[in-house]
Every structure is written in C-alpha cells, then in structure tokens.
Amino acid sequence: MLVFMQQNTSKSYLTKKFFKYLVPSVTAMWFFSIYTMVDGIFVGKGVGPIALAAVNLSMPYINGVFAVSLLISVGSSTLITFYFGKNEKEKSNEIFTLNIILLSIIGIVLTGLSLMFIEKIAYFLGANAETLPYVVDYLKIIILFSTFFMVAYSLEVLVKADGFPIYSIIFVTLAAITNIVLDYILVIRYNYGIKGAAFATGASQFISCMAFLFHFLFGKSNLKFVKPKFNFSSIAKLFTIGIPEALTELSAGFTTFVFNFAISKHIGTYGLAAFGVIMYLNNLVLMTMVGINQGMQPLISYYNGKGNYKNIDYLLDLALKTSISFAVLFFGISQLFPKQLVSFFIEPSNRNAFLLSIKGLKIFSFGFLICGFNIILSGYFTALKETTKGTVISTLRGYVLITLILFILPNIWGNFGIWISSLVCEALTLTVALTVYTRFQTDFKDIPL
Which ranges does the record mark as transmembrane (predicted)? Predict the structure, then answer.
C-alpha cells in the first residue's frame, strides 16, 4: 500500500514524502533520456552526423510509443492511488491488470502495423534519400521492441504508486547500464552502426520490463494481477485521465517533427544533425520536469481522495520551486559549457554541424526556464481529474502554438527565428496556464489552494 497513507500532514513530513517520490521519478526520467542520448553519442561519434540526423528523425516515433504508454499509465496511476486513498485495494488491482493487458494488445498491434508501413513512416518523419536507409535500419529494430518500451514505461510509473519508488531507480539504472555497454560493444567495437544502437536500446527496455514484471509477479508488491473486469467505463477513464500527460510526452515528438520540417526547409541536413543534439539535451530537461510532475501526482491524487486540499497546495508549491531550480541549472550549463555539451555528440572537425549546434543551443535553452511551470500545472490539473484544463495547457504548448510560431518566426528572423521559437511558445503557454489556474481558484474559493 502507499507508504504515505498516514495522518501526519506537517510540512516537513510532506516534503520528505515528496522527495521520496521525486528522486526515483526524476532519476528514472533521466535514464529514459539517457537511452536515446547514449545512442546519439555513439552514433554521432561512431557513424557520423548523417546517421545522427537519422536518429533525430526517428525520435517522434519513439516519443509516440512512450505517449501511448503514458496515456494509459497516468490514468491507471491516478485511479490506483485515488482508490488506495479510499482503501479500495481490489479496484486498484483491477485497474493495474487492465493497464498491462491494454498496453500489451496495443503494443502488438502497433508493432505489426509499423513494420508493414515502415518506409512510409520514415518518409513521413522527414527522411530523404540521404537519411532514409539509416532511419529504416534504426526504426525496424526499435519497432520490434516497442511493446516492451510501453509496458516497461508503464510499470515504472506504477511501481511508485505501489509504494516501491526505489525499484524504479534500480531497474531503470540496470537498463541504462545495459544500453551503454551494448552501445559500446555493438557500435564501437563491432561496427554494427545504427542497427547496433537500436538493438542496444531495445534490449535495455526488454530487461527493464522483465525486472518490473518480476517484482509484481513474485515480489512483495501491493498491486497484484487479478481477473480484470472489462467495461467501457473503466477503459474510458484510463484513456481520458491520461490525455494531458500523453500529450506532454507526445509533444516532444511532435515538436521534433515540426522543427525538423522547418530546419529542412531553412537550413538543411546539417541543421538536422545540430537540432538532434539540442533535442537530446531538451528531452533531458523535459523528462526532468515530467519526473517532478510524476513525483507530485500520486501524492496529490491521494490527498484529493482524502479531500485534504491544504496538502495539495503545499505539494504544488514544492513542485514548482523544484522545477525552477532544475531549470536554472540546465540553463546555466547550456550557456557556460555549450562546446563541451555539443562535443559529446559531434566532433569539432564536423564544423558546420558543430557550430550550428552551439549557436542553436545557447538561444534555445532560454525556453528551459519556463517549460517546467507549464508541465507541472498541466500535471496538477490531471492529478485533480480536471482533465480538460490539463489538456488545454498540453495542447497549446506542444502542438498549436509551436506549429504557428515555427511557421511565422523563421520567415521573419531566419535561423534565429527557429532557435527562439521554444521560448516564445513556452511564454505564451504560461500566460494561458496561469490564467486557467487563477480562474480555477476563483471558482473554488472554498478550496485553500
């Protein structure tokens, strides 16, 4: 059962519980980012900037897989912790089981369809004659492991709801180490190139999935597999509640997609390689904010079930302060050490891509300072089951505004317009998010948030 099911509601107690869930969540998100980031490092160093551009073009597909997982997993986690708060454990078990079954079915269907249309998917993602062979080689292997990606990601979320957040660190760390070791062996030592990088990532997700399943099947888990009750209402709730977080995850892929389109038009292939570097670092920032959000959500959902809104207020404040602390850290590193960061992925001898990456990162990183507020506020509404409000924030930030801005600014300011687009998008979204939050408080004056 959730370890925070106690009556102590002091600020020190809540802070301790928040960080107990925050650390595993952020750590897990870092390692999820490292999976693809390590691929980028080894591909960039071991194969070259064109292959690195191909991995970047493939990222929207991987983000889409994770988004489907989050679509169901966040809804499951929210309802599981809500029913834990009401001491209805059997309902929590039914939701947990239904979550795994749905993800497995969706994963298998997605794998089959993706393999059938792999070249069309590659072209849709922006591949050209130069990058197509690399994109197909990379995606073909990633697709085979996509079900394990989805189930492993889901179980990482649910193991925290189960009351064992430390396991998310242990199992995700195991997977990350596997990925790094296999990348070195397959890409550098045996020259399997982009195929080796894809297999390393897929194998690491398989190991992570098996480790989490072992915990729930044979460990001391509170959540257990039971005979599920399939009904439309339960399934609809899982999908509906998870929409804002799925949109947040998918937005990383969609943002990459529209940036790739704009960069292909205004800069070219080396611009795609440069943006690939920026996206790896941007994803690390976004996953940190998502991790803070996921550390906050089970606690807010639980206290929402208890009707304790004072604690919800404190937890939101704590999450926002934590997000700005990380944002300042990432921004500072990007401004002070851009050459060092870029050199992890691209050799300075590849001068065009190297210099483009440095210039783009220093401008793009201003958006790091704001994105956390939008992600946290979206997650806050999701945890309170105010799904529409969370969806509005996620949709504006990750889809509507970024598309409009990337259509307008590059035509006005050229390359600078591309790199500054993230900051403009986050600032406009924050304006809307704060307006939604303020009106929410006005409508619920009896809730001291």
Answer: 21-42, 62-84, 96-118, 138-159, 166-190, 196-218, 238-263, 269-293, 314-337, 363-384, 396-413
